[in-house]
From TrEMBL:
Protein's recorded name: RNA methyltransferase
Keyword terms: Methyltransferase, S-adenosyl-L-methionine, Transferase
Lineage, top ranks: Eukaryota, Metazoa, Ecdysozoa, Arthropoda, Hexapoda
Species of origin: Aedes aegypti
Gene giving rise to this polypeptide: 5568092
GO BP term, example: methylation
Chain spans, region Disordered: 37-58
Enzyme class: transferase
């Protein structure tokens, strides 16, 4: 009888050990997943560290960006705001062309969606859109996939454009269309890369440039946590630190960085007229500013 109970006890202990090991394995896997999520950035995952891919990560030129960001609330938010925005700039009447510049257009998917949203809201008006990006290959893809007579794409580095007096692709487009400013100018998730690569002064120059070239400015702002995550990502790639990262004075968590950028735009003669009530699926604000009427 004692042998029987010892056998039962041994079997129960063995079952307990197996069960414990399985629970421990599940916990470790979950913990690794949590760590990956806490350390991850909201862009395409790293696959290799070739120089071209390192440059792409450095400047945010992700060639699979829209595959990764399949859920995108930005077009719907802009569409919801459009009727009031058009009234602000007196472009809600027939016969008035509407011009939009998308800085950092990537492969053109979002640019095309904004073009379509404007057409839906303003069916009797001509919509004319220019998308620019630092990556020539992405510009070529955008042109092939979405380009048309009224939806154009061009290669342009907004940091170089803002610091040079030479005629550039944006200025050529404006001369061709005979416009003083765009009605809309969008910078979706591009300011962080400008800030990291060119510092506070470089970001200010770009903000000065975009503010001087539009009536309505649409910014998608990335928080300080994303800056830290991205700097860590560059180190993992073996690309070292961003030259300006440690010298940035515009920084801070809990919305402080975004507030500094927004305050600067306001100081350039703009007013915040719309801000997403909740952060979007990537925990970012989309803020719309209007030029103050003189």
């Amino acid at each position: 009888m004692d042998c029987h109970w010892r056998f039962v006890e041994d079997r129960l202990f063995h079952i307990y050990q197996c069960f414990y090991q399985q629970l421990l394995f599940i916990y470790n896997m979950s913990d690794q997943t949590r760590k990956r999520k806490s350390e991850s950035v909201d862009e395409t995952p790293l696959k290799s560290n070739t120089s071209s891919e390192t440059d792409g990560v450095r400047h945010g030129s992700y060639h699979q960006y829209y595959e990764f960001r399949s859920e995108d609330s930005r077009p719907k938010y802009i569409e919801k705001c459009l009727p009031e925005l058009l009234k602000l700039i007196d472009k809600h009447q027939e016969g008035k062309d509407i011009y939009l510049l998308d800085v950092g257009c990537n492969s053109g998917k979002l640019t095309r969606e904004l073009f379509e949203k404007l057409k839906n809201v303003c069916p009797e008006q001509q919509i004319q859109v220019l998308g620019v990006d630092i990556d020539q290959e992405l510009v070529e893809k955008a042109t092939a996939d979405h380009g048309s007579q009224f939806l154009e794409f061009a290669h342009a580095d907004i940091s170089e454009v803002s610091s040079s007096k030479e005629t550039n692709q944006i200025e050529r487009y404006m001369l061709k269309k005979d416009i003083k400013r765009f009605d809309f100018l969008c910078c979706f998730s591009v300011l962080m890369y400008i800030h990291l690569n060119h510092g506070d002064d470089g970001l200010m120059r770009v903000l000065d440039y975009v503010c001087s070239h539009t009536e309505l400015l649409v910014l998608e702002l990335q928080g300080w946590k994303k800056y830290r995550d991205h700097a860590r990502r560059m180190r993992k790639l073996g690309a070292g630190e961003y030259d300006h990262y440690s010298q940035l004075t515009w920084k801070g968590s809990n919305g402080f960085l975004e507030e500094q950028i927004s305050d600067y735009v306001v100081s350039r003669g703009f007013t915040v007229i719309s801000n997403t009530e909740e952060k979007n699926e990537f925990n970012r604000d989309v803020v719309i500013y209007a030029r103050n009427k003189s």
